[in-house]
Please model this.
Amino acid sequence: MEKLRPRVLVVSLGGTITMTPIASGGVAPALSVDQLLASVPGLADLDVELETVDFRQLPGASVTFDDVAALTVLVRRSLAAGVHGVVVIQGTDTIEETSYLLDLHHSGPEPVVVTGAMRNAAMAGADGPANLLAAVQTAASPAARDMGCVVVFADEIHAARRVRKTHSTAGSTFRSPNGGPLGYVVEGHPRMLVERLSRTPELRLGGSRPTVALVTVGLDDDGVLLHGLGSRVDGVVVAAFGAGHVPQRMVPALQELVAAVPVVLASRTGAGSVLTGTYGFPGSERDLVARGLIPAGFLDPFKARVLLHVLLAAGTDRDGIHAAFAAAG
Model:
């Protein structure tokens, strides 16, 4: 019996990897998926059947929740039609958020791989072709199954739930501070260091479009941004100091806010978990959780905002939101 070639769908949202110089200066999205694939050395030698879709042509900063929801529908239909894996090309500005959003809506075993580039095609040492090759190799590999959505960049494979963009220009920008990479692409083959990854149960696509604010706490913050916020948004994520601390004088404003909308407590540090019971002073994590704030665990503020948006869009009540963050964080 003849072995079937893996089918991989490559979908483009745009981003630096697709950008070329424009007459008015700088670069902007222009290249199609087929043009990108034609520029990748070694891709034609892979025993992989490629399908392509030019889905959007946007810089990463302009991708929306609605764009990713529509992409989720396309991914589901393609996987149901027999595609073995999916590669999503997009701008790096929002990869850490969009990849997690895709992951929340994907519970199947097939790899969904997000990649992009830090250097556009007109620059010396453009990294797009290498990243795209590694992403296709990962999406086609049985080794990447049951890992959910992953980000492949600079031959590293990162879990969507953990990955962060940590540098504005470096090619090695994507890191996973909590746990490190899941694996590496070595000599064209994904080699996983993790045999099994705990995955969040798939969340359904909601019909509403909630507004979730992200408020970062700073030195001597008086909470002025919180006043009246509960009447203008559906939920809030607070990026607090350290293990989940805020200035004491912010507490009354947070108490008022949590009475109006769900408020999630995350850490602005970029790594580590929010605590729940160590510190006891006013404005500590113990104090804030007792007042009704929802601890985000290991989820950073950006991913906490994505999760809260998905839960609110699906109409999840506060108990359900608490349970979902306990499981995901």
